[in-house]
Amino acid sequence: MKKKKVKTRTHNYKKHIGKAPGTLVYTGKKTEKQLKIESFDYTKDTITENVLTNIADVKAHKETDSVTWINIDGLNAITEIENIGKQYDLHPLVLEDIVNTAQRPKIDEYDDYLFVVLKMLYYDNEENIVIEQVSFILGKNYVLSFQESEGDVFDNVRERLRHGNGRIRGLKSDYLLYALIDAVVDNYFSIIETLGNKIEDLETDLFEGNAKEDISIEVQQLKREILKVRRAIFPLREIINRVEKGEHSLILQRTINYYRDIYDHLIQVSENIDIYREMIWSLMDMYMTTISNRMNEVMKVLTIISTIFIPLTFLAGLYGMNFEYIPELQYRYGYFVLLGVMFLMFLGLLYYFKRKKWL
Amino acid sequence: MKKKKVKTRTHNYKKHIGKAPGTLVYTGKKTEKQLKIESFDYTKDTITENVLTNIADVKAHKETDSVTWINIDGLNAITEIENIGKQYDLHPLVLEDIVNTAQRPKIDEYDDYLFVVLKMLYYDNEENIVIEQVSFILGKNYVLSFQESEGDVFDNVRERLRHGNGRIRGLKSDYLLYALIDAVVDNYFSIIETLGNKIEDLETDLFEGNAKEDISIEVQQLKREILKVRRAIFPLREIINRVEKGEHSLILQRTINYYRDIYDHLIQVSENIDIYREMIWSLMDMYMTTISNRMNEVMKVLTIISTIFIPLTFLAGLYGMNFEYIPELQYRYGYFVLLGVMFLMFLGLLYYFKRKKWL
Amino acid sequence: MKKKKVKTRTHNYKKHIGKAPGTLVYTGKKTEKQLKIESFDYTKDTITENVLTNIADVKAHKETDSVTWINIDGLNAITEIENIGKQYDLHPLVLEDIVNTAQRPKIDEYDDYLFVVLKMLYYDNEENIVIEQVSFILGKNYVLSFQESEGDVFDNVRERLRHGNGRIRGLKSDYLLYALIDAVVDNYFSIIETLGNKIEDLETDLFEGNAKEDISIEVQQLKREILKVRRAIFPLREIINRVEKGEHSLILQRTINYYRDIYDHLIQVSENIDIYREMIWSLMDMYMTTISNRMNEVMKVLTIISTIFIPLTFLAGLYGMNFEYIPELQYRYGYFVLLGVMFLMFLGLLYYFKRKKWL
Amino acid sequence: MKKKKVKTRTHNYKKHIGKAPGTLVYTGKKTEKQLKIESFDYTKDTITENVLTNIADVKAHKETDSVTWINIDGLNAITEIENIGKQYDLHPLVLEDIVNTAQRPKIDEYDDYLFVVLKMLYYDNEENIVIEQVSFILGKNYVLSFQESEGDVFDNVRERLRHGNGRIRGLKSDYLLYALIDAVVDNYFSIIETLGNKIEDLETDLFEGNAKEDISIEVQQLKREILKVRRAIFPLREIINRVEKGEHSLILQRTINYYRDIYDHLIQVSENIDIYREMIWSLMDMYMTTISNRMNEVMKVLTIISTIFIPLTFLAGLYGMNFEYIPELQYRYGYFVLLGVMFLMFLGLLYYFKRKKWL
Amino acid sequence: MKKKKVKTRTHNYKKHIGKAPGTLVYTGKKTEKQLKIESFDYTKDTITENVLTNIADVKAHKETDSVTWINIDGLNAITEIENIGKQYDLHPLVLEDIVNTAQRPKIDEYDDYLFVVLKMLYYDNEENIVIEQVSFILGKNYVLSFQESEGDVFDNVRERLRHGNGRIRGLKSDYLLYALIDAVVDNYFSIIETLGNKIEDLETDLFEGNAKEDISIEVQQLKREILKVRRAIFPLREIINRVEKGEHSLILQRTINYYRDIYDHLIQVSENIDIYREMIWSLMDMYMTTISNRMNEVMKVLTIISTIFIPLTFLAGLYGMNFEYIPELQYRYGYFVLLGVMFLMFLGLLYYFKRKKWL
Q: Which regions span the lipid bilayer (chains A, B, C, D, E) (predicted)?
């Protein structure tokens, strides 16, 4: 069996040790891909979509009256990100957190913007869960989003922006942030669905006795995936809860109901994860029982065969002895009498096992 | 054994992913059954009962002075539900939650109505627990209830309305809501009773040694049922607790005592569920012990038989050897002496096993 | 083995389902015994004790200036209890709770009385724990107590009332309530003592190897008893805690110290129960270890005997073959040489087992 | 094996049941020893030490301006303790708690004194943990201490008083109380050190394979000791925490820092206890693994021997048959060919076991 | 196997028992190394670095306007530390805590300084985790740090001070304290990384079947290391949380954001530790399963061989008997018929095992 090693990213931490606070160190996988900057600028009636080539252009948007969404893909371009940071007046620790992909989901409020870090989850081609960090800066009339690489779960939001579906164009940047977070959280459901299916498959295998010997390895890997997902999702719950309680002035009262909806979804996801954990523990239990039952069966076969034939073999050995005088040996029907006796013993033991329910 | 697969509804989530918030998607089982709208309009002295055919008729009731209960069966009729939503001025997220049957029990307060989601539990014909979502809208003088399909636990409430039993006709819509929730919660008791019986049956089987080999599967299924029920019931507890604390102005002080009663019932149900969980864990433990004990017994039989006959067989083999000179073989009573020795060995071992309490 | 089935009373719930709130349904065991009403009316200097025959007489006491204790045995007399309820102006839900013996311990404050439900525990003749519900109504100058049947733990309180021992006659109804609750709680100690003894007996059996095969059944039953007791006692702790914090105006400041004493006792009882739970879990663990150790021992005996005699038997079989030319068979002392070889093998294996510490 | 029975003192409770509240019942071991009253009366510059013979003398001290410490050994002298209670105006429940040695550690504030109960732990000569109750009454300028019997951990405090070491003579009664409690808590460290050593010894035994068969009994006893210590120490933590928060006016601000120090110590002790608990659980786990590993080894020996010799024995038996015509038997070298075949089979099986890593 | 004994330092406590509070007792390992005092005195533009030889020189720094960091290595020089204590007016309990290396991480606020104790973790040359206590005193314009011995994780901070990198020279003593704590916490990541690697190595061994028999010992040691690290790190979390909430006036608002960063790091470390704990529990579970599976395999081999050959051996024994009249023995082809029968039995059993999936 090929072992899929689930990495826990601990090795990323080291790059950071001993640097002065606020030093930008990208801790994800170095990719050669270039930075990609995408911008949407919209009011209720108009929308402009651009792929920016120059960092300086970003500045321009900030001053408009419309709502601007700037999405940055690729966190290894440290200098460009520092530039953006300067243009938007971001605290050095915020920039450090944006590029440090080992960050825990969190929300930090600064004077005129809100900083949100969360985790985007998806399965890659080899069915491994990938955790990608997404950071948001919510300003009065803009949202910045930072992703590790291209490809995300926001296409639906882009479509709604372009076609003006739903309320999105009519509302402010706080609703845009909601729409983006909602897209991330919605995607969690597909992750837990896949997890659920994996667990049910394992369970079916176990019920039907098809379980391979290495089921404990699969169980171990599932446990880890669940731990990983749990760790990515659970802190978000608390964050959204705080948003929903109206702690952050940048998020308007009107939008808070929507955040409550996200919160409900996160609770649902969390509950499912906890149920999966419990189901996996049960699975392991069942597996242990199965092993014990199987061993019991093996032992029964051994015991039945041994208990029947060992005494019979002894009897046969007895009359195979070469003593000069063994009276039974001379009897004409001695052999047949012995066969009869052996047969009766055989029947007797069968009955005994039957009564003990071993057969 | 036919495997009853307990589905956990995760597959429903997907339909939703990527839709704009507030989009109505019915996530239950599509049924072709038509929407059924039932209305009760009553004061202390009068009552009118109707089965509505036209959505527009619903509007009429809202303006009356009497208390109106409108019960809607069938959530797949999205457009009609949207119409009701417009007539009663319901928030889009409320409508989305009503038809999203994967909703968690919750209570949301809006400006002039209260939105309550809970779960109605019952056993279907194949002894599977069915979880049906029921949503309530409590307005000043009306209650709307939405169910997935026909058939519910409210017949008793209908009877009391029709015949004016108890206090129900003399009080306001908040008491009606209480009566409806109370009916749902009362029914939980029959669910946990059935669960309790199942556990006791399993236990009796185990005590009396009648346990089939697949007891761990039944245990697993019971665990899941309990998880399912737990998840449907536990959030409700917190909701009713908040109602009881008087957080919601639509529920009058006079009625709050009654909600306290529901709360007590929910605590009782919850406690029972937790006790069942613990009992099931114990059952599994006992089952493991039973397996080990049984294996012990099997091993003892094998060991006793082997320990007695293997040495005897060796002795018999010894005198079955064909050496030219084995003095014992020539002794006239050699055979009988050996038989005697063997018998003594046999007795000795029996005594040994007796002392070791293996017999 | 006679199985003692521990009932968990779930079957009582059903009687209630679908009744209008406030309907009185006695859920205990129907007994034909008559209602018995006992009354004490006392001041510091005088005391009148009566067994009432007429419900109407109860009314009279309420208006006196002295403290009155009315004790009602037998909850199946629904109509009489309804009468008392009317005379003392009790809320319908209170009456419902008094006769519903599946009630959880609780305290509810009403305008001019306090309603307390708790559980009286005792062992019946067959050593089963019996849980009897006792409800108290504390008014300004009276205490009503309701019990399922005759026989209680209040005899000591009655004696103190009659002879004016201690402070009881000089204080108000809130002290009387304290004295009654204290009597109930004091009795919990004898329950947990019996539980403790049972656990120690089991443990001794296990230590001394006298454990019967069905120890897991006894453990299971003990676990249940503990669960049962726990559930009857734990909610009371919180109730007394609230009383002690002075939340209820009917209980005077002077008496609160005494309630603190009850609270301390309940904490002690609870701690003991939790210790017993942990001890029982440990017992089960130890039992599993014992089983495994015993199996190990059985396997060792089997292995030692088999390992010694199977090779010897093979050797004997070898020289029992009928080949025409087996040189060893012709040697004059072949047999004795072989016996010597066998003996050496035997010694060698003994030494091997000794070194492995199997002997 | 001599069983050390760890008593849990439940049997003491019974003496108390059914007594009027405030009745003094000594629940410790009845000893014939006499009451011993010791008093220290000191100011910054002077100190008087007395062993009192008359209870009435105690009164005198209370009125002095200096700080007085009166230490009473022996709680079975109920009447004398009642006298002290009267002289110092103690609440009857306080006196009841002082002599009821099954009391839980607690702190109760009364109008002009503070009542503290805690547990002094030490090992007796047979290495059993002894729990002795110590009660303190802290008044404005006096401390009363009550112990079950002579011998305590306060000698160091006495020395400091006598020689005026440290701050003790210069400060008030609240510092004296601190010094006494500190002495009790300091001694907990030696208890947990002994516990730690016991656990490490067990662990070493297990690692080195010297574990006796009854290790589970020792583990069980350790678990109990830990439970016992835990129960004696943990409630104290909360008490000191409340003192440290300044809830009690009799303890001056200046002294509170010192109580914070005790609190830190208690947290340390508690943490160690919890670590020990976890280590013991792990030990049990390891022991189970050890048992299973040992059984595995036993089974392997059995299987190897059986798998090698059972087929060989069959072959030997085959040529021991007495058929008239078995061609192989007539071959001149049949015997040697068979021996060769047997040897090859033997080698083959050895290789097989080698590859399976059983050898 | 060489046993690495993980010491838990309990033996240090004893030195302390019975001393007056405020007595300085160094509880670490006595080393002969001398006290080393190092000082940095800096403003935005200037920096003076000294290795002090005289304790009295320390005083001088306190009065300067610049920020001073004095680092003291070696806690066994009790008298010198007492001198420093006097010069800086430190509370006796603070000094006691500085030299008592069994201290728990904590923060205590005094009138004009803040006292922080935490644990520096590193691996020594033998791969054992070493826990060294570091204490900080934060005054208005100075930081004192106390370490058990030379060698620390602050070199990076020293470099930044010397070269004026980052913000450190421009800010006050509270930022210096932050930088020092940050250095300690950063180093935790390398500890947990090593732990993570150890766990993954164990896991790989287990997956690939290379696990030695003593894996449970390694698991036990890992558990202990984790407990140790946990205990050193977890209390710090709460401390930093309190700092971050602005409870301490000596830490300026501007610096608090930086402490929030440390808090995030600590949460990350804690989460990893908890994940490692869970993974280790799972490992143990998997190991148990592995053992059981292996035993199952052993048993199967035994059972297959026994079940096949025991009946065949019986048959051979049957025809090895010496009865005078056994008709089969005279048949010309009796031997070959029997061989055929045996071969069929052999095939039959093979088929049986195949169907049972034992082969």
A: 301-321, 333-353
